[in-house]
Amino acid sequence: MKNPPTSSVPRLDIYAGIHKGLRAMMMDTLSAVGRCDARDSAEMQDVCERVLVLCDTCASHLEHENEFIHPAMEAYRPGSTAPIAADHKHHLHAIAELCAMARALPTGIGPDRQQAVTALYRKLALFVAENFIHMHAEEAEHNPVLWARHSDAELRALEERIAASLPPAQHLLFMRWMIPALPTPERAALLAGLRDAAPPPAFDAVLDTVRPHLSAGDWAALNTALTQASSS
Q1: Is the pTM above the cut of 0.70?
Q2: How far apart are CA 11 and CA 166, in angstroms?
Q3: Separation of alpha carbons 169 and 166, rounded Å
Q4: Please, are residues 222 and 214 in contact by the beta-carbon 8 Å criterion?
Q5: What span, in angstroms and rounded, lies between the C-alpha atoms of 168 and 91?
Q6: Taking a C-beta distance cutoff of 8 angstroms, is the pair 174, 21 a contact?
Q7: Which of 73, 46, 40, 96 is nearest to 142 (CA)?
Q8: Tens digit of each residue's pLDDT (9 = 90 or more) over 205-219
Q9: What is the rounded (10 degree) CA torsion for 3, 8, 12, 16?
């Protein structure tokens, strides 16, 4: 499989940040399922809810790609999205299966429940593995098509259209996973842009959502970078 192309002048990669967030969410959820004690009903309920939230997030993400990114590519290069679009259909089927397994788990009892947890873990592991390959393909093969037709300003506008389509709760969920997955300079750039564009209460809600998931050092570094961005 191709590696993402490099350039002396980096282009805007609209996949990079959200894919880092999704990878982090997938790994965290998979680990939670793997260590789940099926004898603990509260832990079982929590793990099943986390799987359902992950599934909903993944379904939402691929729908955004289908609605916003793929038309921009197809207008320039017809057929360029066909392989990934086929993956999306397969992923929706896998998401439906994972949701059904997660919803059925809390009703099980005895040793059968641990077997069901193991089956969910293995199914989710395959889903995560397939998505890691899928996301790499998008980064390596879709970006060149987008870059050939669209300026960075146009790609930024496309990103903003996607963000504007999100309900507030879903936007916060994406921010919760994406911002901690970024290095400090990228965190600061994203949040500085959001601070300039969003009402103060919306920006504060993002900070409140993200802060529990950053270390003390990362939080301090982020605040320093944001302060510097304000004064520049």
Answers
A1: yes
A2: 25
A3: 8
A4: yes
A5: 25
A6: yes
A7: 73
A8: 999 999 999 999 999
A9: 40
